[in-house]
Amino acid sequence: MNIVVCVKQVPDTATERKLRSDDNTLDRDAADGVVNELDEYAVEEALKLKEAHGGEVTVLTMGPGRATETIRKALAMGADKAVHLSDDALHGSDALSTSYAMAQVLKKIGFDLVILGSESTDARTGMLAAMLAERLGTPQLTLANKVEVEGGAITVQRLADYGYDRVQATLPAVVSVVEKINEPRYPSFKGIMAAKKKPVETLAIADAAIDAEQVGLGAAWSEVVDFAAAPPRTAGTIVKDEGDGGEKAADFLASKKFI
Amino acid sequence: MSDILVLVEHAEGEVKKVTLELLTLARSLGTPAAVWAGPGITAEAKARLAEYGAEKIYVAGSADIVDHVVAPKAELLAQLVAGKSAAAVLVAATAEGKEVAGRLAVKTDSGVITDAVGLSEGFVADQSIFGGGVNVHSRVRKGTPIIAVRPNSTAPVPAAGAGAEEEVAVELSDVAKAARVVERVKQEKGARPELTEAAIVVSGGRGVGSAENFSVIEGLADALGAAVGASRAATDAGWYPHQFQVGQTGKTVSPQLYIAAGISGAIQHRAGMQTAKTIVAINKDPEAPIFELADYGVVGDLHQVVPQLTEEIDKRK
Ligand SMILES: Cc1cc2nc3c(=O)[nH]c(=O)nc-3n(C[C@H](O)[C@H](O)[C@H](O)COP(=O)(O)OP(=O)(O)OC[C@H]3O[C@@H](n4cnc5c(N)ncnc54)[C@H](O)[C@@H]3O)c2cc1C
Ligand SMILES: Cc1cc2nc3c(=O)[nH]c(=O)nc-3n(C[C@H](O)[C@H](O)[C@H](O)COP(=O)(O)OP(=O)(O)OC[C@H]3O[C@@H](n4cnc5c(N)ncnc54)[C@H](O)[C@@H]3O)c2cc1C
Question: From the list B179, B194, B286, which residue is nearest A139 (CB)?
Fold first, then answer.
């Protein structure tokens, strides 16, 4: 089975994240770049499926040059190779452009299964998998906490408000995973060493037949008009429970008219 | 004024509160037209949509729409966007609502904005990003604006609309029927308000200690008429069902009041509750990061503090 895992580099949530004042886009230099957490679960699921069914796991990342760190991490976990879509023309792409560019690459490299995280920690739009399914004309099996493949059939448990749905389709398909699905492995020392030798193919937009008019800040279908730092929360009142903590909390709730 | 399509969120024939909020928002920007996808619309549901300003109610009652994942709803909306020359489409910013918005954006070649917490003239959206650290105004530049609005972004206000019903037949493509729901597993919901819609949420974390002890959290929630939430530590331990998880990979809530008991306040948890108006934390560790967010915090054992708080609330009612 030919599995492609989409992995995004995002600013570390533990550092302060900013937008750039010149063009209102994410300031990628202000914070350390890390693998989007959920994408490690996506990689893990791909590796498990490969272990069970054979095949190959390819990492796909769209992002600037430094996103190679993210690729290495996924390769160190055990993925076989990577495709890095990197081109200055992609800077500032919105979700429509991003999904278009990634779909073009996926069409070029081919796949039986595409696995994504269900959401990134920076933009958090949660739309990429659905958009890719739409663009590729393949079944959408998203928000999965369980994936089973048998022959050409795939079944997932899709989380829902009321519990979950069992959803079935035939391959090729697009899957997104939630963190309940597995426990991502840590790269071993051997894995880290091996990752350095694994092939990483870097593509510019022209290499994947991506139309420059459809990507980047200028092409974006949506735009940030302006932004401002949120006013800091005023420090709250913290009391120590001296046997009357519940009563004091009740006083606070009453003062705010909740009771 | 042109139609603003509002995709109705419904369960068991009932309209969810977020839809009433969306209709309220739509009224300030155009003519609200509710879109009901799937079978099971009731007279009460129609009355409710009209009460909150729906001038039209488009009903696509085919079971095929809900028996396949997301794509049919996007096809239905795309058909209405084209046929009714809609000015904008509003959906609830739930995990599924955002997926519908994403597919619809591709289909109609339109810009999409997710997680709006407000909407004004010209469909300029307010977004609160990076865990509430930055406030953004954003806008769609091309196509029909598609906006996913977070529950609890505005108070629903009734203002009667005509509620004229129109049946819509959708010819679903084969692609839209590619991912089929073969089983729907409903886990019990109980009588409490729904998590994302509740005005008050009481959440428990690892500090609660066991599934049985969650009755302490439920007791406080019931005294306040609140929904119950849980941290990932609590859902992973099997103490509370996963659909009650609050956070980055769980539900995003923005209630008037959020009470966190025995929750440390990890970044992934904060991502789901940081926009709550008032935050109260109960934790035995004075260094717990949740206190950085709290408007009011009690350092203490939740097994003492929470029952006492519940009792006080009952007394003062
Ligand atoms: C704060 C903020 C808000 C934004 N709001 C909007 C908005 O409202 N509308 C809009 O159109 N755009 C928006 N954008 C732009 C959006 O971030 C980009 O288009 C982004 O590349 C895709 O969105 P996402 O990260 O939210 O994807 P999600 O759908 O949240 O990510 C899901 C998965 O997609 C995969 N993935 C996502 N991006 C990549 C990538 N570059 N390479 C490889 N895999 C990837 C990963 O597997 C990831 O887990 C916003 C950006 C920021 C920083
Ligand atoms: C990809 C990914 C996604 C995630 N998504 C989510 C998510 O959606 N939601 C989420 O919540 N987490 C999520 N997490 C997990 C998150 O990082 C934390 O591990 C989790 O939130 C911790 O839960 P907790 O606060 O209940 O437990 P802990 O961090 O263990 O905190 C327990 C707290 O309870 C206090 N305590 C203990 N006993 C008592 C007592 N008797 N009385 C009072 N206080 C007491 C302790 O002092 C401590 O502060 C995610 C993690 C990853 C990697």
Answer: B179
Indicate whether A235 pLDDT > 90: no
- State residue B290's pLDDT score: 97
Q: How high is the ipTM of this complex?
A: 0.94
Please report the pLDDT score of residue A230 as a whole number. Answer: 87
Cis ω for the linkage preceding B156 (within 30 of 0): no
Token pair for B144: 């029909």
Amino acid letter, B4:
I
A138 touches chain B (CB under 8 A): yes
Q: Which of the 8 DSSP states describes residue B251?
A: B
C-beta atoms surrounding A195 within 10 Å: 20
State the Cα torsion B240-B241-B244-B246 to the nearest 10°: 70
Decide: helix, strand or coil at residue B45. helix
Q: Closest Cα to atom 48, ligand 2: which residue? A: B264
pLDDT digits 0-9 by tens, B53-72: 999 999 999 999 999 999 99
Report the pLDDT value the prediction gives residue B204, as an integer from 0 to 100.
98
The tens digit of pLDDT for each residue in A134-178 reads 999 999 999 999 999 999 999 999 999 888 999 999 999 999 999
Q: Show the domains of chain B with their CATH numbers.
A: 3-177 (3.40.50.620), 200-316 (3.40.50.1220)
SS3 of chain A: CEEEEECCEEECCCCCCCECCCCCCECCCCCCEEECHHHHHHHHHHHHHHHHHCCEEEEEEECCHHHHHHHHHHHHHCCCEEEEECCHHHCCCCHHHHHHHHHHHHHHHCCCEEEEECCCCCCCCCCHHHHHHHHHCCCEEEEEEEEEEECCEEEEEEEECCEEEEEEEECCEEEEECHHHCCCCCCCHHHHHHHCCCCEEEECHHHHCCCHHHCCHHHCCEEEEEEEECCCCCCCEEEECCCCHHHHHHHHHHHCCCC
**Looking at beta carbons, which residues of chain B come within 8 Å of A248?**
298
Residue B1 pLDDT > 70:
no
Closest CA relative to residue A60, chosen from A88, A118, A94, A99: A99
| Domain parsing of chain A, residue ranges | 2-219
Tell me the CATH number of domain A2-219, given options 3.30.450.20, 2.60.40.10, 3.30.470.20, 3.40.50.620. Answer: 3.40.50.620
pTM over 0.90: yes
Give me the pLDDT at residue B317, please: 84
Asked if A34 has any chain B CB less than 8 Å from its own CB, the reply is no
**Which structure tokens are listed for A240?**
């120590």
Closest by CA position to A38, among listed A46, A49, A30: A46
Q: Which amino acid type is present at position A233?
A: R
Per the CB < 8 A criterion, the answer to whether A174 and A139 are in contact is yes
* B98: nearest Cα among B251, B291, B281: B251
Ligand minimally distant from the alpha carbon of residue B204: 2
| Mean pLDDT of all residues in B110-122 | 95
Give the number of whichever ligand sits closest to the CA of residue B232.
2
Backbone angles phi, psi at A16, to 5 degrees: -75, 125
Q: Residue B188: pLDDT above 80? A: no
Regarding predicted confidence, which is higher, B49 or B189? Answer: B49
Length of chain A: 259
